[in-house]
Amino acid sequence: MQRQGLDAENVLQAAVEMADTQGVEGLTLAAIAAKLNVKTPSLYNHIKGLPDLRMQLSRRGLMLIKAAMVDAVIGKAKDDALLAVGFAYVNFARKHPGLYEAISTLPDYEDPELKEAGNEVVLFLLRILAPYGLSEEDALHVVRGFRSMVHGFASLEHRNGFRMGLERDESLRRMLLTYLKGLRASVD
Description:
Elements: H1 8-22, H2 29-36, H3 40-43, H4 50-73, H5 78-95, H6 97-104, H7 112-129, H8 136-158, H9 168-187
Helix pairs in contact: 1-2, 1-6, 4-5, 4-6, 4-7, 5-6, 5-8, 5-9, 7-8, 8-9
């Protein structure tokens, strides 16, 4: 018998909260059950197990990071849009370190839903790059470089890699502007 009010969304939300505070690696079904005040076997009425739950975390993370980037670019184009996306990406990692970790360590990229969610993020970025007039291959290289750059920044920041007294957002802004300057130079 299922507990009143317990559903797949409650389980996933509890996992999101725990991942964001304790990390994905520390996530266990027993801990989620304790958080929800149920016995661990009760979770299996709503999820297939821990690997399934981690897959759901990755999907949720991709959906939310894309939504954050979409919100950030409303009314912006070209450099302003890419700058906004870079900040949205890093701010998402700051706000949701567990979900970001779930995105960064995709459990099974061949999962159709996960693959589709990842492709949607890439297609969104390609649409932002369209005004630069790049070929599809060049645009994909730009997306890879851009993601590598903001992922590196977010990862270093998360691991306390920036210990100097410099303002981190200013460092991020300068890094993104330098990348954009190189992008503009390559299309001029």
